[in-house]
């Protein structure tokens, strides 16, 4: 299995390096989102909907660039622009599914009384784990909306050890410089990793850094996302090394 991780790392590093400008596309999307929030943020209901659609366009553009990078293809400026519509409705369908789940979760938590906080933490952790492969499925999968979320849950159930081992390492590297890994209780560490694996986790980590330090975490995030994409492709094809690893897990 280590050999698989090393091979994926070599491929990801090579492709991430060739497509290094993609790392800084995040700054373009951040500027767009700030502008959208400034223009539409004060408009009740409709403003939030418009900002959500702008976010969907930004995510669509990013995963289009990521798809090209993981596939070893060159990215052009036109890809960034065309990407806003390339997978727009796919992203919207998944955002809608998350909105429905969030609405249901809020009703459950709201009716749970004093236990609501604990239930919210459990639900958030469950979503962070089982929906962890959603970004990769958006550009490598064939389903959408709730079907895509189910595909992510099935993928994680089948490949949880192979998938989370490098991802936990990446999360630890991201958290270590801030000293966030030093916690009193193991449960706090679980919640911390839950936040990192949430949809907004990486963005919050980047926002907490001073401006002059941004290039390093952006390049690191770029490599991690390319690595995840290549790893997902390898695991979803279930190669011989993976089957041997899974057989060893079952026998152990």
What does this 3D model show about the protein?
It is a single chain. The protein has 252 residues and is mainly α. The chain has one domain. 78% of the residues lie in helices and 0% in strands. α5 runs antiparallel to α6 and α8 crosses α11. It starts with a helix and ends with a helix.
In short:
The protein is an all-alpha fold and 252 residues long. The chain has one domain. It is built from twelve helices and no strands.
Kindly provide the radius of gyration, computed on alpha-carbon positions and rounded to a whole number of angstroms.
Answer: 19 Å
Number of domains: 1
Q: Compute the number of strand runs.
A: 0
Beta-strand residue percentage: under 5%
Structure class: mainly alpha
Helical residue percent? over 70%
Question: Which of globular, elongated, flat, extended, rod-shaped describes the shape?
Answer: globular
Q: Termini distance?
A: 15 Å
Give the biggest beta sheet.
Answer: none
Specify the number of helices.
12
N-to-C SSE series?
Answer: HHHHHHHHHHHH
Q: Pick out the low-confidence regions.
A: none
Integer average pLDDT: 85
Question: Can you lay out the helices and strands and say which pair or pack?
Answer:
Layout: H1 2-18, H2 25-40, H3 46-70, H4 77-86, H5 88-110, H6 116-130, H7 134-140, H8 145-175, H9 186-196, H10 201-207, H11 215-236, H12 240-251
Helix pairs in contact: 1-11, 2-3, 3-4, 3-5, 3-7, 3-11, 5-6, 5-8, 6-9, 8-11
